[in-house]
Design goal:
Rossmann fold; alpha/beta; about 30% helix; seven-stranded parallel sheet; 9 helices
Length: about 280
């Protein structure tokens, strides 16, 4: 029987000063959402003051930060005129077409509903500065990023097996992908793995995994790793207890794509106390 590394089951406090990637533990999910929103708002404020654009890779998962960010932007009169956003992924139907924006699982629709449409008109981001992956032009997202000089921050969460966006573990029985190959993976269409479908169905479809689209388009690891910084969250308690620890402690491996953020100069993970608990057997 393979022995699990001790850092999976130790108190999170024992990882402070040892982890390859720094992390911040917040009291609960709500505090984490507020912390992330404050970091986003402060970046906007700093860039606006410097007369610089703000360029983000944006997630739909997590989304709990958006109500707080909307409140901060509107209350503090933070202009989004210089904000350029790059939606990190999107579900596709079985023919690799985008879902309609009014589909309950449309990520573009969710971002509009939870963030863009709620910003006061005089502060709003110009629509033409909002970008999403396009299955009919896979290079368009990278080209849009290049056109504005790159990405400042990638915001996101961590999937059950360590995927960022829908960059899932790529190796199969028939083909092994190296870390170097995977780090250069561009925006592409992917067939989602069964464990992702099951986990996502719990939060998005009441466990009805048959209702979830089985295809997606994802920004590549290449674009993510080229960002100036990355901030990820882990707030799903039981099923994220192991993966965030792998992200900050385990040697980079395609089996857990999030481990590749260790290559970035500025990476951090925000964790709530419930999720920070040991990933011990029987816990």
């Amino acid at each position: 029987m393979t022995r699990e590394p001790e850092w999976l089951a130790c108190p999170w406090q024992d990882l402070v000063g040892r982890s390859v990637v720094p992390f911040t533990v917040l009291p609960d999910r709500d505090a984490l959402a507020q912390h992330m929103a404050r970091a986003m708002a402060d970046e906007l404020i700093a860039n606006n003051a410097a007369g610089a654009p703000t360029r983000w890779i944006m997630p739909v998962g997590p989304v709990s930060q958006y109500p707080y960010l909307v409140e901060m932007v509107n209350a503090e009169k933070i202009s989004l005129a210089g904000l350029h956003t790059f939606q990190m992924d999107e579900y596709l139907d079985w023919t690799s077409r985008l879902l309609p924006d009014d589909h309950p699982l449309s990520f573009a629709g969710s971002l509009d509903e939870k963030f863009f449409s709620l910003i006061d008109a005089e502060l709003a981001q110009p629509v033409e500065q909002r970008h999403r992956p396009d299955p009919t032009n896979l290079d368009s997202l990278a080209e849009a990023i290049d056109a504005v000089g790159g990405v400042d921050t990638c915001w996101g969460g961590i999937g059950v097996h360590g995927h960022i966006a829908f960059n899932e573990p790529p190796s199969t029985y028939f083909r092994s992908i190296s870390v170097e190959e995977f780090a250069q993976a561009p925006t592409r269409i992917v067939a989602l793995q069964p464990d992702t479908l099951v986990v996502n169905s719990i939060s998005a479809a009441g466990g009805n995994y048959e209702a979830l689209p089985q295809m997606a388009i994802t920004i590549g690891m290449k674009e993510i790793l080229a960002a100036g910084r990355i901030r990820l969250t882990a707030h799903r308690n039981l099923w994220q207890r192991a993966i965030w620890r792998r992200a900050v402690m385990q040697e980079p491996t395609v089996m857990y794509p999030v481990t590749l953020i260790q290559r970035m100069a500025d990476a951090e993970i925000f964790v709530d106390e419930g999720t920070a608990a040991p990933a011990a057997l029987g816990a």
